[in-house]
Amino acid sequence: MTQEQALEILKTGANVFLTGEPGSGKTHTVNQYADYLREHNIQPAITASTGIAATHLNGITIHSWAGIGIKENLSRKELEKIAKTSYIKKRVEKAKVLIIDEISMLEAGTFTMVDLVCRKVRDRKEPFGGLQVVVSGDFFQLPPIGSQAEFAFKSPVWKKANFAVCYLTEQYRQDDEDFLTMLSAIRSNSFNTQHLQNIQSRIIELDKSPKDITRIFSHNADVDMVNGQELNQLPGKAEFFYMFSRGQRNFVESLKKGCLSPETLELKNDACVMFTKNNLKEGFVNGTIGKVIGFNEETNYPLIKITSGEEIEVSPMEWTVEEGGSIKARISQVPLRLAWAITIHKSQGMSLEGAVIDLQKTFEFGQGYVALSRVRRLSGLYLLGYNQKAFLTHPEMKNQDQIFREQSRKIQESFALVPKEKVFKKQNDFLLICGGTKDKKKPTFVPPVVGTTAGKVSTYDKTLALINEGKSIEEIVKDRGFTQGTIISHLENLVLREKISYEGLEQLIGESLLAKIPEIGQVLRELDTDKLSTVFEKFNGQYSYNELRLARLFLSFTSE
Predict the structure, then answer these.
(1) Please, how many CA atoms are within 13 Å of residue 499, restricted to the half-sphere of its CB?
(2) Dist. CA 8–CA 17, nearest whole Å
(3) Please, which residues have CB within 8 angstroms of residue 327's CB and are 6 or more apart in sequence?
(4) Where are the extended beta strands (E) located within 39-104?
């Protein structure tokens, strides 16, 4: 099934299990559907089985969303308590569509508990209280944690929910047929001697492995050791980038736990780094590899040269938790992490041109499959070794996968027979049932994210003290001995941390620039870009970069 076909089925309001091999576009399709719902004034509940997966989708864990936390089962008393908790009750009642990503790692009992909470809160007998439920993932990948843990499809509610299985069959990551054949063999537990020979041809010793490409290990201790050793060997001064946050504490902590960028990011020239967020306009995605080639003299933002040769100045970006159309929490950090090494778990969802992979300590079904399938082609794989479990997927999945494929085939065939006008009517009816609109909402201006810069927090506080004394930007520049660009970076940081009021920022910017902000905002909306160079060129140099930064900051502040 194609992504387009799956999307049309999703729009009808059917409960859907969206699956497919790594690189088939599952998360992309989920994001497309979420965008479609928002365009029609419906806010989906975005969740995932893990914090990392949830962060990729700007959502929260399903455990947090349903209020079940780490519970393994629910007593009647506990269920009553959760259902009466005001914020849980409000979010579940308000929801129309529930999306759960990385379903393979969600235990069957947890899946059942989510159903219980939804039915109790919504006071309806249908599965999940009548919500459309979209579960996405691949059961060949990482399974639920625990020796007795069972896959979500073993839960009784799975059958009751009557999921339409949409098995995506197109491949957007791998372009090497031999490598694809080998990955398919691992998937079907038919990995043979020929496949092993192909794998063994990629074995290499660690000291002879390529430099500046990511190494993937099964354990955190190996990752931390490698990254620390490599960074310490680099000469020169280290630059530190600090994560800042705002919002509800529990959501903030969830974001921090799921974010691939660390709370304190230490970088040096020549450090191997990986981007941790998608930004196609700027030329990078989650998993893009590069090297630090310097730091901007004014902003101190890192300059990264990626493998294609392009150079990118990386400014901070935001990760957010959205609920009911509003942002509940946000964190801001430079979207990078040290990339000499990463764990298999944290690599899930990434696409890499090349990787050095160590499968000698794999301990779970699917770990080796997840690690190998991050790489686009066999020539990009450098293997340090493997153990007996490295090429095994869960034994239950061989037969179950055939069931899912057959169910998907039947859904695809039957859906193709439905007249288009009938499908269109069903899609429109679902929008109206959810309280949405048939017509798309008019796009609204969302200003570019403004984040933080590196440096000690004390330097920001010194700038803040001068602001509180009523000094202008020009006076602060003179007193601090910094460039205007650096002081503006301080302002960006202080605004994010809510240290400057609206009135204070307005006074700093001054009447002259305030009068020009509507015009600048219009161009920012039209160009829809984070690159100030593009905006600068649009105005033919009419405004300086610093004026544009101040205008962008003011627009970001007033949009809160």
Answers:
(1) 19
(2) 14
(3) 247, 320, 321
(4) 45-48, 60-61, 97-101
Token pair belonging to 175: 């372009």
136 in helix, strand or coil?
strand
| DSSP assignment letter at 343 | E
Using CB atoms within 10 Å of the CB of residue 212, give its burial: 0 to 12 exposed, 13 to 18 middle, 19+ buried.
middle
What residue has token string 């957007």?
Answer: 172
Tell me the per-residue pLDDT of 9-50, one tens digit each, with 9 for 90 and over. 999 999 999 999 887 888 889 989 998 998 998 989 988 887
DSSP 265-284: EEE-TT-EEEE-S-BTTTTB
- CA dist., res. 156 & res. 127, Å (int): 10
Say if residue 242 is exposed, middle or buried (CB neighbours under 10 Å; 0-12, 13-18, 19+).
buried
Helix (H) or strand (E) holding 314: none
CA distance 95 to 131: 7
pTM of the model: 0.63
β-bridge pairing 272-275 and 264-267: unpaired
Question: What is the strand order of the sheet 244-247 is part of?
Answer: 244-247, 326-333, 317-323
Chain length of the chain: 560
**Are the C-beta atoms of 138 and 22 separated by less than 8 Å?**
yes
Q: Are 108 and 139 in contact (CB under 8 A)?
A: no
What is d(CA 101, CA 62) in angstroms, rounded to the nearest whole number? 9
Phi/psi of residue 290, nearest 5 degrees: -160, -175
CB within 8 Å of 232: residues ≥ 6 apart: none
CA dist 161 and 163 (Å) reads 6
Other Cβ atoms less than 10 A from the Cβ of 257: the count is 13
Q: How far is CA 279 from CA 274, 287, 434, in A?
A: 13, 11, 31
Residue 406 three-state SS: helix
Q: Tell me: the pLDDT tens digits for 248-287?
A: 888 888 788 878 888 899 999 999 888 888 776 777 777 7
